[in-house]
Structure formats: C-alpha cells, structure tokens
Amino acid sequence: EVQLVESGGGLVQPGGSLRLSCAASGFTFSYYEMNWVRQAPGKGLEWVSYIYPSDSSIYYADSVQGRFTISRDNAKNSLYLQMNSLRVEDTAMYYCARVYRTSDGILRLDYWGQGTLVTVSS
Amino acid sequence: QSALTQPASVSGSPGQSITISCTGASNDVADYNSVSWYQQHPGKAPKLIIYGVNNRPSGVSSRFSGSKSGNTASLTISGLQAEDEADYYCSSYTSSNTPHWVFGGGTKLTVL
Distance between CA atoms of A70 and A64, rounded to whole angstroms? Predict the structure, then answer.
C-alpha cells in the first residue's frame, strides 16, 4: 500500500525556517517524481515544488523561488522541503504528492499524504 | 503560473447530475491531456478521481466522468449521492516556461 506521511510542521515566526519531511513507503521511491502542494486555510490548492527522481530537475513556484528548497534522499525514501524566510502568507497545510507518468506521457498526482500544517505568525 | 477557473459552488439533488467546468489557457488545459480532478472532504487530503481528462483510478465510482473541449475541462457527477458533497479541484500539468502543475480555485458541491 502506497503511503506518504508528512511531518515537521508547526508554528514559526515570520522570517523563520522549517524543514518538512515526507516519508514514503509501499513503492520504489527512487523511481518517482514528487511534488509539494500547499493549501492555505479555507483556500484552494497551490503547487509549490517538483523534483525528479535523481534530483536532475527541480522546479519552484514563483511565490517560493529563492526561499524554499526541495530535496530527496532515495536511500531513506524521503522527500524534504526546507523553508526559509517564511512569511505569513506561507501559512498552509503542506502535502507531498507522488507523480505517476504513463508511457504515453500523461501525468497525474496519484497519491497524497495527509499533510502537515505550517503556521507563520508572530 | 496562473490558476484555472472553476465556479465557486454548484448544487444538486440526490439522483441528479451536475457538471463542473474548469477553464484554462492555451498552454495548459488546451495543450495537455494531463488534466486531473480531485475530491476533497473537509479535513482530508485531496483524492484523485479523474486523470488524463477522462480516466478513473481503480475504485472510483463510474458516476464520475471527465471531458475536455479546447481550453475547458469538465467533471460530471451522475446520480448524486450525499457522500459526493465535497470540494472539487481541477488540475493540469504544463511545461510552459518550466514544468509545473496549475490548479483550479475549487468548487464546493452541495447535495441538497
């Protein structure tokens, strides 16, 4: 059974840092592209960052570029999001999501974790 | 990285059908078949219900179906049931500029 379990959220002051983790199980983590997606309280989903299996390609939303860093440790089946210079508007539930890519190039975010809540407030 | 456009809310009675639209641009929904729909109940993670425009993952009811015409994708739920009441989000992968996903703002479905 595919499982994604996020951790590391919490309350942090503006300007502070947090490191989120996503522990993967039930599939060969090193084969899959992964994403972070967030959802502010009462708001919609927002894509945050995307990483390929071997760190060969990494992409960020404009809203977090230069402040957040996505990484992965395939030996530990784990995905990370280092968040620096946090702002009030970064307050959200953060989800990790697996990418499934079919042979004909169709992509989907097929499994999501339960999320970890990040609150940025003074 | 513009968002897709969905109606804020739709409603229907049990047994009826409803359709939720999702309008994008020429460089996302129109250009890619990686259009997905997610169902989210309060306090829960999003759940994939449609992928590749009109495909259902194993275990998802056949009452859910998807389609696309030009830059607009649609989700239809037939035979509405009380448990269908949830938020629904469309999404499209795009490699315009850099690879990323765009999401709709979400549609709250109320089953009357």
Answer: 11
Cβ pair A113:B45 closer than 8 A = yes
Residues linked to residue B39 through DSSP beta bridges, in sequence order? B47, B88
Q: What average pLDDT does the structure give for chain A?
A: 96
- Per-residue HEC secondary structure of A38-100 comes to EECCCCCEEEEEEECCCCCCEEECCCCCCCEEEEEEHHHCEEEEEECCCCHHHCEEEEEEEEE
pLDDT tens for residues B66-82? Answer: 999 989 999 999 999 99
Q: Residue B10 corresponds to which tokens in the numbers above? A: 């739709």
Partner-chain contact B100 A108, CB within 8 Å? no
A62 touches chain B (CB under 8 A): yes
Residue contact B34–A62, C-beta within 8 A: no
Confidence of residue B1 (pLDDT cuts 50, 70, 90): low
Chain A positions touching B46 (Cβ under 8 A) are 45, 95, 112
Q: How far, in Å, CA of B51 to CA of B83, rounded?
A: 21
The Cα A9–Cα A81 span in angstroms is 11
| Contact call for A50 and B1, based on CB within 8 A | no
